[in-house]
Amino acid sequence: MHLARRLPAISRNCNVRLIKTTSAVTQSAAEEQIVIPKRIQRSPTAILEALSATVGRDPTAPHYKFHDDPYLIPTSNVSKRTFAMAQEAGRKAAKWIKEEHRNLFMHQEAQPPIEAFAPKMVFNEESEVTLETLEQLIKQSLIQDAVFVYNLMKTKGVEITAEAKQSMLELLSFYNHEEPMPEEFYEERWFKENTQGQQRQTKTWKDGDLAEQVFNEIEPKTPQAYAAIIRGMAKYYQADRAYALFQEALEKQLQLDTATYNSIINNVNFLKETPDQKWELCKDLLQQMKQQQLKPDLGTLNGLLECISSFGNYKMGRTCALQVLSEFKKLGVELSLGSYYYVLIIFCRERGPVSHVIVDILNEIQGKEFKIQHPKDTYFFATAMDVCRNHLHDRSLAKKVDKLLHVGNNYDLIGDTYKESIYYRHYFALLSQTSTIEEFLETYDKLVPNVYIPEPGIMEEVLKMIELNGAYELMPRFWSDMVIFDHINRESLLLRTLKIMLNNKPDVTVKSQQQLPEQFAKVALDIYNKVVESEGRVKKLSFTGQMIGDILTILVRGGNWEKAVEVFNNIDKNQHRIPGTPSDACLMEFVEAAIVNKSPSQALQCLQYAVENHMDGLSLAERINKGFTLNEVHIAKMKSLVGDSFLKE
Amino acid sequence: MSSLSRLLKSKKCVSNYGQQIRVFSAQASPNGNDVEMDDEEFRVLNLRASNQKQLARREFKKPEVMPPRSLKMATDQDWTAVWPGPRSFHPASVPLPIRQGFTVKGAAPPSKYANAELMKIPNFLHLTPPAIKQQCEAIKKFCTPWPKGLETEEKWKRLFPVDVVSTDYCQALPTIRNPDARRVTITLKLSELKFDDHAKDKFLRLVGDRYDSETDILTIVADRCPLRKQNYDYAMYLLTACYHESFITEPWEESKSEADMENYKYERNKSKLSVEQILNWGNADSSDKREASTGYIESLENLVNGGENEYSLNKYKEEVIKMIGLRQ
After folding, report:
1. Which UniProt keywords apply (chain A) (predicted)?
2. Does some domain include residue B5?
3. Whether residues A488 and A428 fall in one domain
4. B159: which chain A residues are within 8 Å (Cβ-Cβ)?
5. pLDDT at A23
6. Which of A500, A521, A547 represents a domain boundary (last residue)?
């Protein structure tokens, strides 16, 4: 923004940069040879990259896509998503306007012209289409337009070359006739729930659509055509037909490439039922590759590992995986993170024996920078952290995984927001269970809330840790975090917060804790107000006797007598609506506070409440009698409630 | 007021607490009810009732706002990460108690919050000395060492006398091209080139006003070609061509007469003959010829070329007297 505002001014001033190069016109009388070093070659963006590498991460700042302003920094997972998607919606609206009012955007004043700013071409039956148009559309991956133009060319009788047909087939097979999500909607892709991989893969290939027609039109059938259609079918899990075509190609003695074999290996799970059969088929395919003198690559390895990971038999999976890995190591195939992901899911199973394979993996890849090579590469970090937490329960391993994540550009491989939050969920849960509170707070301060916002479940783990460590002085802070993260409609969190504050009575004699009772009272009052406010909403919270009793006690301890009376009145008034009753200790504390505040009527009201709810009224009555000098009316009232036994000492 | 106390009385009857009045329940009961509760007085028709009876607006609840993040910043934080580039001032991101502007005379300047004065002025928070140091370190790897033997300005001026200047532009326009970027200027001190008299004269005539006699600098600006490279080549070509051309003597240059000369020169002028004639009056011996003194020649040339003034005239007079040997 700021920069953009400054720039017009700069262009007016004109003298922006003055490059002074001294060119060589050497005098012959040079007493010694002057050697001017060669210019160090660099890419156009090298300097920018070098400068940006100097900028570290600021833990207090939000992600750069958000505005750096307290009102506009998202503080909950929902608002993060909302804010980012709002920006995306703006982008979409602009795109829509561009297409809707295309006549306004036909001018091209940019130099060199920016194709993305121009509206898309619109085709109808009358359009003049040539082979070039089709090639252009295929190059831009505009599926629907390409299909339309292809059909139009057919009806008009324009000749389509074999190359154009082949590239058309490749386009349709790759995208399965579906328009891919535009490149510029990166936020949507980041927040989209990626169901692929979580659910069972199902067949989505469009049978009998244009891709197959184009394939049939190609005569004579080339290996490339076979490769394209087989890979397309395999990618969208039309396993049987892909395999049939594969066999057909083999019968015709066509030379297929490694990627096509890989796609069949990926589909072995669909072709065979039992692990043994699957493994046999895999071996067959590998043998065939050997006969055709094809060199297996990373795709082959990951395909095999994926197949092995589906074996129910732990021992067999293990041995097969080890065989495959050693075999590929001999071939010199570099493993990607995706391969390590498969290794993890093969070795570390929920009901299998404990495996320390991750230790070896981490030793192997420590400090290494990875690039994406396989779709499953983004699954590694979340799975590795899962293994650290649930399988091995090892904090130092988790730290190692986290270190690896921050090597170079490895953070790009975290995947999407879903995987990122799984990763941090496991990390935080593990830390809260295994580390000291200081260590945990260090990580917490660094990551929360700008990188990760703990889900209610993790917040509960954190509260448990506080409870265990007796670090109740952190409660006000974590309460404000919970308010900001929008967790306060979770009853379990409220109850635990109250429990911690109730069970840990601050020691007022210690100076650092003098403020605490008051702050606790504030928190309790906050909780009280939230519950009262939530009435009439969809997500309604309701008091229990225990809960409101805790609030009352904390208020009393915090010296907020006025509010305590209000809360008690609420208890008294809504006796029938609130299930359960406050504890005896709670009422006793209230009576004590009534004595301190010299309000016998509240004490009597409390006594009445206790008696009405069949609680221990006698001890309360004794305390009241001792604490106040009561008048006749009061004593009569007490007698009518608990009899006159309290008068006897 | 009266209605409230009436209400309290009726409440008192219900509760059996004697003297104590339960304030809370009284407040809780809606105010509109007391008309119906009281049977003793006439009911009042309130004509303004419809105005007063506004629908209870649902209160707009502001979302919780985080405290400014400057409060959370550590004292040993890396400031270059917080403020990496030029940006308008923002109070929540700058942990400094800055003040700017004025309200009334004598009062302290307004604080940083909601302070437009601070946002208007350009700040240099991104150009702290550590940031500059970091950035210099980062781009050092693109720099080559300074060549050996060129340590002083005098040295490199002597060995590389030609300066080539061109300009790159960075602008907020749809086009990334700026026509002015094609312009190339080369400058050169003329004393670096070797000439004889004729060549220098011819060269200066060729370059015309591109030569500044005061500073002895020749400037060639080339902008007639569309690309910078072409303009550079053209400028270098002009320089080379002019230089070599100046050494060629064309046949027609021989026909240059005294009237075409740009300077008065004693040696080639008729006055030389006249002076020598006067000096050798009556001296027939050709081996012992007297010539004019250098002082005289200088003063004469100065007088004709520099124009007549008191000084040059006096000087001329002195020299003539001295040369002829007259007594003053």
Report:
1. Mitochondrion, Repeat, Transit peptide
2. no
3. no
4. 26-27, 30, 34
5. 44
6. A547
CA distance from start to end of chain A: 80
Interior/surface letters B246-273, b for 16+ CB within 10 angstroms, e for the rest: beeeeeeeeeeeeeeeeebebeebeebe
Cβ pair B147:A20 closer than 8 A: no
pLDDT, tens digit, for every residue of A389-431? 999 999 999 999 999 999 888 999 998 888 999 999 999 999 9
Average pLDDT over residues A244-262: 92
Dist CA B32 CA A197 (whole Å): 63
Counting the structural domains of chain A, the total is 2
From the list B69, B139, B180, the residue facing A60 with the nearest CB is: B69
Chain B contact for A40 (CB, 8 A cutoff): yes
Predicted confidence at residue B50, as pLDDT, reads: 61
Q: Answer whether B138 sits within 8 Å of A14, measured CB to CB.
A: no
Please give the angle made by the CA atoms of A113, A118 and A123, to the nearest 5 degrees: 130
Asked if the structure places residue A487 within a domain, the reply is yes
Q: If you average pLDDT over every residue of chain A, what do you get?
A: 87
Interatomic CA distance for residues A420 and A404, integer angstroms: 14
Residue A219 lies in a domain: no
Which of A5, A25, A529 is the best residue to mutate to test the B interface, defined by the most B CB atoms within 10 Å of its own CB? A25
Interface A-B: count of C-beta contacts within 8 A:
160
Residue A101 has pLDDT above 60, yes or no: yes
Question: Measuring CA to CA, how many Å separate A197 from each of A376, A384, A427?
Answer: 9, 16, 22
The count of domains in chain B is 3
Domain that holds residue B81: 77-143
User: Whole domain around residue A441: which residue ranges?
Assistant: 351-452
Please state the ipTM of this predicted complex: 0.75
In this complex, which of B72, B90, B170 lies closest to A60 when CB atoms are compared?
B72
Q: Both A481 and A445 in a single domain?
A: no
Distance of CA B243 to the CA centre of its chain: 36
Residue B139 has pLDDT above 60, yes or no: yes
Which tens digits make up the pLDDT trace of A432-482? 999 999 999 999 988 988 899 999 999 999 999 999 988 888 999 999 899
Using a CB-CB cut-off of 8 Å, the residues of chain A touching B90 are 68-69
- What size, in residues, is chain A? 649
B141 with A50: Cβ contact below 8 A: yes
In a domain, A535, yes or no: yes
Q: Which of B125, B143, B161 is the last residue of a domain?
A: B143
The answer to whether the beta carbons of residues B73 and B91 sit under 8 Å apart is no
Q: Do A35 and B147 touch (CB under 8 A)?
A: yes
